[in-house]
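C-alpha cells for Cytochrome P450 monooxygenase ABA1. Go.
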Amino acid sequence: MSSLSVSSAIEALLSLLSQHPLYLVVFGAVILFVVGRLRQFWRLKQFDGPFSTGFSWLWHSNVVLSGNAHKYYGDVTEKYGTIARVAPNHLITSSPDLWAHMNAVRSPYSRSPWYYHCARFEAGKDNVFTECDNDKHDVRRKKMASGYSGKENPTLEPSIDTHVKELVHLIRSKYATQATSASASKPMNMAKKMQYFTLDVISHVGLGQAFGDLKEDADVNDYLKATEEGLAISNTSWALGIAWIRDVPILGKAISPTEEDERGFGKMMAHARKSIEQRLLKSTSERSDMLSSFVRHGLFGDALFHETFEQILAGSDTTAASLRIIMLYLMSHPRVYAKLQAEIDSAVNAGIAPASPGIISDAEARGLVYLGAVIREALRVHPPVVNIFSRVVPKDGDAVRVDGQDVFLPGGTLIGYSAWGMHRNNKALYGEDAHVFRPERWFVDEKEPGGAERLAQMLKTNDMIFGYGKWHCLGKVVAMIEIHKVIFELLRNFDFALTNPSEPWTISNAMGLFAIGNMWVEVTERS
C-alpha cells in the first residue's frame, strides 16, 4: 500500500471519528484495551505457556469449567517449566522452594482477591481462608489456633473415636457380608459414608453435637447436596471472572445466598447459625470444643459464624476426599492392600490396638510405618486439595532463584500452585515413576550419600499438601487423626473391593475441592 493510500485512510478515519463522538469513545477504549494487553504480554514474556495465555483468559476459563484444572496445571508446568503462564497476568509454579519462599511467615506476598473472594459465603465478609489482608488474617488465625490444635479440647480424640465406631457399626450392620455367605452383596457408596463421618466429626468437635449422619445413614441436613451446588456456582463465577458482581450494591445481595433460602449454601448457613446459637446457650468456660476456644480468644458475632461455617465445610470436604483417595488406591493395588493389612493385623495381635470395638489411639497409629507411608503416598499421587491458591507478588517485584536460574517476578503478578506438578509429576524429587502409587518410596536409606537430605526434602514437599508457613492448614491435626484411625479400623474389620473397577467413582474439581460420588464397593466381614 502506498504512503498516499495510508494517509488517505487515516484522514478518512479521523473524519469519521470527529463526526461521530461515540465512535471516538469506542475507538479509544479498543486502543486502551489492546495497549493494556500488550503491556501484560510483554511484562511476562519470559514465561511460556499454552497458546493465547499471553493475551487472553480464555484458556484458563475453559480449564476451570472442565472440572480438571489441576491436571491442566500439572501438564503446563511439566511442558513449559516450573514457572509457567496460564493467563495474561497469572503464573503457576510447581517449585516447592519457590512456594515455600512465597508462603513464609514473614513473606510480603498476599492472597489474591481474584481467587479467594470467590470462596466467600457472603459478599464483603471474610473468614480465615478468604481474608486477603495479611495483618487481619494473622490476627484472626491466632484467635483460632488453639481450638484447631486440640490444646483446649481434651475430648478431641475420644470424640473422633465415637464416630469411627459408628462408621464401623454402620458398615457391619447394613452392608458387610460374610466371606462364606452365598447371599447377594449390598454395594455401599463409600463416597457418601466418608462424608457422613467427617461431617459428624467436625460438627461434634466444632459445635459439641454431631449432625447424626452416620446414625441415620443419610445426609440429614442436605449438606452434601448444598455443598456441591454452592461450589459449582463459585467455580463458574471464578472461571468467568464475574465474582465482582456480588460486591455491587443491591445487585450483589440479590444474587447471594441468604439464610431464608430453601436450598444450597443459604440453607446450610441457616442451620449452622441455629447450631451456633444453641451451643452458645451453654457455658463456654469449660474446655469442651472448638467454638468455646474461639469465643475465649475473642471471636464473636459474624466473625464467629463465618469461621465456624468455614470449619464445617472445609473440615469435612477435604478430609473426606483424603479418605476416599486412600481407599481407592488401596483397593486398586492388591499388593499394597495386603501389606498394610498384615501390618494392621500384627498391631492388633501385639496388643498395640485394643480389641474391637475399641479404636486404636492416634499415637499408636502414627507408629505404624507402612500405614504412614501409604497415607503420604496416596495424598502425594492424588492431592486431595488442588486449589490454585493465587498469591500477589509484592509491588516492587521479587528476584528469586528457581532450578538454578535467577528469575524476576514483576510486582502485581498473580502466581499460583500446581498441586499435580509439585507432587504427582515431580520426577526430580520422587523418581521417574513419580506418577505411580508406591509407598515404599518413603523408605529412603538415610545412610546412603544424600539420602537424609533427599528424604527431608520429600517430607517437606509432601507436607505442603496442607499448605505452608503463615497459610498452613489449621485443620491438619484433626484431619490426620481421623485419617489414621479410619484407615486402620476399616482394614482391621473388613475387606473392600470396587464394584465397578472400570469406573470407580465420579470426580470433578470445583474451586480446588473434589466433588466425589458413586464410589460403590463390596464389603466383606473379616474373621
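Residues 1-40 form one domain.
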